[in-house]
Amino acid sequence: MKPGRAQLAWALVVLVWLPMAALLIWGPGGVLALMALRRQVQSLQAEIQTLQQENGQLKEEIRKLKTDPDTYEKLARELFFLKKPGEQILYLPPAEPSPSQSPGGDAAGTAPAAETHSPPPAAGRQPSP
Questions:
Q1: 35-58 residues labelled b (16+ CB within 10 A) or e (exposed)
Q2: Which of 61, 81, 107, 109 is least enclosed, having the fewest CB within 10 Å?
Q3: Containing H/E element for 24?
């Protein structure tokens, strides 16, 4: 028996066109890979935009620190616990999280011992009580 034209057409589809379609969809450089690359491009563009905004904020902060003495003084006072004559520094340690919020708590709900933090000494000055 000789194969008919319909059988030959189906054989052509199965042997040639079906693998080509599969390569176009799932192969390297195929539709799915292209869609993944587009998602990656969108993600990177969003990251670039976020970094550009952060860069702009940092540039503005640098400009203020170079030109505005009040900003420079405020930063120095906060970082080094400096004070003006006659002022007192009130240091409040960070609040301890409750056992349900503590990432280090065990199944019984007890939290690990919290570390105590004290302010760094400020250029030979001791905070007044």
A1: eeeeeeeeeeeeeeeeeeeeeeee
A2: 107
A3: helix 18-26
Domain coordinates of the chain in residue numbers? 9-80
Cα separation of 83 and 127, whole Å? 9
125: helix, coil or strand?
strand
pLDDT in tens, 72-108: 888 888 888 788 888 887 878 888 887 776 555 554 5
Tokens of 11: 């054989």
Q: Name, in order, each residue with C-beta under 8 angstroms of 32's C-beta and a sequence gap of 6 or more.
A: 25, 26
pTM of the model: 0.48
